[in-house]
Amino acid sequence: MAKVVLVTGVSRYLGGLYARRLSTDPSIERILGVDVVPPKHSIGRAEFVRADIRNPMIGRIMAQAGVDTVVHMNVIATPKDTGGRVTQKEINVIGTMQLLAACQKSESVSRLVVKSSAAVYGSSPRDPAMFTEDMNPKTLPRTGFGKDSVEVEGYVRGFSRRRPDVEITMLRLANVVGPSIHTAITDYFALPLVPVPLGFDARFQFVHEDDATAAMILATTGPPAGIVNVAGDGFLTVTQCTAIARRPVVPVPLQAAGVIGNIVRRSGLADFSSDQLTFLAFGRGLDTSRMRSVLEFEPHFTTRGAFEDYARHLRPAVPGVEGVGEVVSDAAGGTAAALSRVFDRIQP
Amino acid sequence: MTDDPSKAAASPTSETSSVTTTSAAAPTKKKAPKEKAAKNAIAKSDAKSGSKSGAKSGATKKAASKKAVPQPASKQAASASGSAATSSATQAGPSARPARGAFAAGAARASGERRRRSGTPLIPSAPVELSAARRLAAGAGADALADEVVSAVTEGPTEPETRGPATGASPARAARAGRGSPPTEPGDGAGTFEPVVGEAAGAETVEGETVEVLEVADAPETVDPADVLPAEPTPPRRPRPPRSAVRSTRRATPGEPARLRAVPPVEPIPTQAEGQAGDHGTRHTQTAQEGGWERALTSGLQSRAEKLVGAVLEGAEFSSESRPGPTELVELAVNVLRAAASSAGVPAEDVERQVAETLAYLRRRLTGDYVVDEFGFDEDYTVNVHLPLLRPFYKTWFRVEVRGIENIPDEGGALVVGNHSGTIAMDSLMTQVAVYDEHPRHRHLRMLGADLVFQMPFVGAMARRSGTTLAANSDAERLLSSGALVGVWPEGFKGVGKPFSERYKLQRFGRGGFVSAALRAGVPIVPVSIVGAEEIYPILGNMPAVARLLGLPYAPITPTFPLLGPLGMVPLPSKWLIEFGPPIETTSFGPEAADDPMLVFDLTDQVRETIQQTLYSLLMQRKSVFL
């Protein structure tokens, strides 16, 4: 059972949320939060340790504190926050390597929990409707976060071979949305004008930030579960999402999507790599039966509920648009009223 | 006329006085002045047409010349005026029938309009209170009163003579009067003559309005500053009865202007509507003036127009009082719809319901308020858009005849396996419609499509929405075990793209994956044979280079396709037969049988043979390809 937990990426939003949640669990004796920058938010009763997981020093920390559970949440999906793709890859891949190397050396570590992503399944027109955990991607993600995730999972698999005594739980989270979290997908739907692939209407699954954290907590304290997909129930299409977020769309041919993606990325509004663009065209479905049967986790938010919660906190695309809308509808109502009376009378 | 310029300066209020004069003249001078007026008009137009100097004198001259125009009508007017005189007697009696207040009001204004058009706008009107459009609208009610109108018209010209001073208005207005040509006249004259007409109107048929007139007649002159207009320095005052008449006509549209202004957004639309109605009215007016017999002919139309305009006016007044809201919008839309439906001879309820459903669908689309399942199937879209789009093909174009629909189970999973043909997968779409429309439970056929389908923009999105998913074992088994009815066409592109010479010859049935999927899920296999699809686009040749270029499995040449361009994409209207065969049970083999390749091949062959034999028998029964 988890007594001393080491959390990486605690200065990131989801890491901080996780640390706060875990702090409320009295069975946990000690929580160590590791990151390169001090957290801006509360991390509960977790002790912040300023360390770089890319540095072998992490092994000494583990040994000193007698860490028995390592929670790896430092696989970064948004290069914008970390200073570019190079740093992102460095943190994701090299960081995971070093962390797992340290874990392998450590005598005390008995459980490893990894926050992975559904991006490992890629996204293509030849995908099955639903991916189960044992399915391989039809097309391997070749760039960005998806590729990092695949490599991270590769290292974890290698680690599990070398340390079969360590229980491993790896959660493949669907896109995390919520009122506060910033990811590529939340930035995307917050654009004042959402470019969508022309002629495609991808299916998405979302998981609420609270559910994502709760699933990670469960993976830390609950029974070992192996690889588990985590997603809210139900599906939303891109069209539905933009409708719920009340954003106008501009259809863009998929061939031009790379250019548009570049423009958007350069402008700093949202961060999209090419595999995320294919994701917008073809979407992805996760089979979550293992989440229920093995992890025994029941998400509180459905896909729609999670997205609506996110959209509620979204500012309108154009400031003051509501006011203008009211004025217009007032005027329209006025003329309509007049017309209706006229027609009332004409009608025999 | 001569002292005209000097007194023209008088004041803007001279209109009111002029009004009084006109109306005063109306009851007293009937016949005689009219003829005089006619003569005068001619004379003036002759005499003064040459010399136009000052703006004011110019205006009067123009007016005079205009007077000349309506002269031909004055003869009728003269004859008609007799009747007017007699009817004025009835007006005096307060016993008038009360029913048609709105009508009378409309008529009053209408005749004002009539007058404006045909009479001389010598006397500029009060700064217009009623919008021109409104007055135009009023014109619609006029027609029945043509006689009186014309008589009034002829009276118009006489006024300036008797009352020179009144004519001279502010120079600008005079100029305007001069500029205006009868049809486009901005309505200055109309206001002036309205009173007279109003009386004439009241005199005629009359009704309710008369009562009002009488009442108001006694009222003190201070009434209605809005009506009479700012300040009455009132140079020359005129007898009272006519003034009251003025008021009475305005009463017909009580407080209109003020109220309309009070609710700005409401204003433009009603006036527009009236303007249109008014156009009708004026058209009738003109025809009515042409000859007496035409009046009789158009009287039916006229009375309808009257009713309409009366209603419009009342409606407009009412609307200006109410506060606008979305309810009104809906009410209006429904009313328009009902009117349109009834005029088209369709039951209004049906149309209403259909439109309501469509609107509800659009609303759901706009708000994203619909459910998409894990395969991307969007039932809302399929039922409301996809199937309705296919139904014309199904019913009218291919006249699909369905047999053995009872072989499809009412519930639970089943695998429908069919023969594929027709260059594009029209047969699967028609089978989808057949299953939904003919089956008593209206089941959705969830089809399995090639990955090429999902690579293509639009096609892929439509396919997913309408329930198609990738032809992979994982998807098929997932669908079947969830109790869905799954359709598969195992020939794939080999079947769809085969040349016309090989029609109705089944190709290899894939690798039998569909059988193993059915075995694993333990669902029956329902063979379906489709006859007719082969003939919709007979493939005569292939263009492999084009196909390679576009990344397609084949690029067909049909008798019409590249030849007629897009027109060649219209399928030939062959007659279709779809027969569902008796289901082949798979439960007895157990799910592990799916791993027995021999059994799978045997079952595959059995299904294939069943379909092939059914195809032959259907082809024998078919009388003609197209009938």
TrEMBL record, chain A:
Q: Which residues form the signal peptide?
A: none
Query: Domain NAD-dependent epimerase/dehydratase spans what residues?
Result: 5-231
Q: Which Pfam families did the record assign?
A: Epimerase
Give the InterPro entries listed for this entry.
Epimerase_deHydtase (IPR001509), Lipid_A_modif_metabolic_enz (IPR050177), NAD(P)-bd_dom_sf (IPR036291)
Supply the name of the protein: NAD-dependent epimerase/dehydratase domain-containing protein
Which lineage do the record's taxonomy fields give for this organism? Bacteria, Bacillati, Actinomycetota, Actinomycetes, Micrococcales
From TrEMBL, chain B:
Superkingdom of this protein's organism = Bacteria
Q: Which SMART domains match?
A: PlsC
- GO cellular component terms? membrane
Record Pfam families: Acyltransferase
Entries under CDD domains matching the protein: LPLAT_MGAT-like (cd07987)
Q: Where is the Phospholipid/glycerol acyltransferase domain?
A: 414-533
Please give one Gene Ontology molecular function term for this protein: acyltransferase activity
Q: What InterPro entries does the annotation carry?
A: Plipid/glycerol_acylTrfase
Signal peptide interval: none
UniProt feature, compositional bias: Low complexity = 7-27, 39-110, 163-182, 196-205, 243-254
Q: Where is this region: Disordered?
A: 1-128, 149-294
Q: What is this protein called?
A: Phospholipid/glycerol acyltransferase domain-containing protein
Please give the organism: Terrabacter aerolatus
